[in-house]
């Protein structure tokens, strides 16, 4: 019973952060702010959902695997956010250079 | 309650497919295609086919998405003069919106509705007997593996899998025939200077390798197998190539040829040796079946991974 | 009384539908995003939300092999990003 309450709380928190990330993606004015919103909020949401599911599937190996997935996700999303930001900077710089 | 997920997924998938085809800008279409691939992978999982889901997500969205991004770059380099000419040229690229008569649209629409009705009626009730599942699972102990999908792919219908490997090889040959081989000795990109990119590629390479090896071996007892492992290993080659270490083009040519053909060749030799010792074509002796399947899968995975890397390396500049 | 009414499976289904709706919302940005980096960003959303959906499905269908598919999704979103930023170097025009 307590475990189920925890799982529900964690999953709801995860969904909330996913919604926050998506709303940020839709409503923020600039690519960089959208990047910030999406990368942070989505990963946090995924972390919460991962924690909730790891709690639900009460197997230790599954928990280890889910933890590994979470670490890999952090690594790849940090890298991709940096790469996208740098890409956009270079695009804007080359566009400004072209206009001037 | 499952019907809610399934219907939402189905609507989303079909919507994405339509958007992908009708997108006026190619860059939209490429990314919508990627999303479509992911939704299709979810649909496969809802259908219970996890092996296909992994292969679909990795090959049909990942690999083809990467190839399409590269083609997109070539398109935009050609069309990068100014914006109006760009729009005008872009609107001429594949979808012609106005050149059909309305009767064509009506006929196509009616045909589509008819087709939908027939297919819905056909699949509304799943046959109760389960088809060949019972026979496939009954013979599982003799097939050498514990997962029915792998048994079907690598044992009962090994001939088909062998031909599929041949199809991938033929794709590679088609690229060579279309002039891809001219990229042969090009230096490609310089090694990535960005420390983050270097570190990421260098971290992902062993992770991908190990995970591919895991999927390869796990195919014995669960979803996995040669194709899934192969596309992950091919992803290593693609990542290294993108990072500026075009490893595949620097391997000696004979070695490349061996890598790409070893899966097909060994599979074929295996099939024939069974005939030599009295069995049918591709009939494995039950005692060694598990071991043979593992060896075949490993070599096939190596060869498909090499073919995928070659397709990418020789298509890009 | 709460235990009689509440079903974990139904809750999982609600979560999955919610995440699918998030993906649907993300399509708006995919369609409108003025630059190609916005579209790339949206595919990140699809990847992460897809991973979340798969994890919840792994709990719902009680099938631990779905976690392997999760790793695959992760890998492909990073490969798409690396591919785009590396092949699109120093291009002056706009995407067609």
Task: Explain how this protein is built.
The complex is a heterotrimer of chains A (100), B (317) and C (96). Chain A is mainly α. Chain A is 92% helix and 0% strand. Chain A is built from 3 helices and no strands. Chain A is elongated and about 60 Å long. The termini of chain A are far apart. In chain A, 43% of the residues are buried. The mean pLDDT of chain A is 90. Chain B has 317 residues and is mostly helical. Chain B has 2 domains: 1-124, no CATH class; 146-317, no CATH class. Chain B has 14 helices and no strands. In chain B, helix 3 (50-78) runs parallel beside helix 11 (226-242) and helix 8 (148-156) packs across helix 9. The longest helix of chain B has 29 residues, at 50-78. In chain B, 36% of the residues are buried. The model of chain B has no long low-confidence stretch (mean pLDDT 83). Chain C has one domain. Chain C has helices at residues 2-5, 8-32, 36-60, 66-87. Chain C is flat. The model of chain C is unreliable at 92-96 (pLDDT under 50). Chain C is mainly α. Chain C is built from 4 helices and no strands. The interface between B and C is large, with 69 and 48 residues.
Which key terms come to mind for this protein?
heterotrimer; A: about 100 residues; mainly alpha; about 0% strand; B: about 325 residues
Rg of chain C (C-alpha, Å)? 18 Å
Say how many strands of chain B there are.
Answer: 0
Give the quaternary arrangement of the chains.
heterotrimer
Taking the sheet with the most strands of chain B, its summary is: none
N-to-C span of chain C:
59 Å
| Structural class determined from secondary elements of chain B | mainly alpha
| Number of domain modules of chain B | 2
What's the total helix number of chain C? Answer: 4
Instruction: Please identify the structural class of chain C as seen in this structure.
Output: mainly alpha
Helix content range of chain C: over 70%
Sum up the overall morphology of chain C in one term: flat
Order of helices and strands of chain C: HHHH
Shape of chain B: globular
Beta-strand proportion of chain C: under 5%
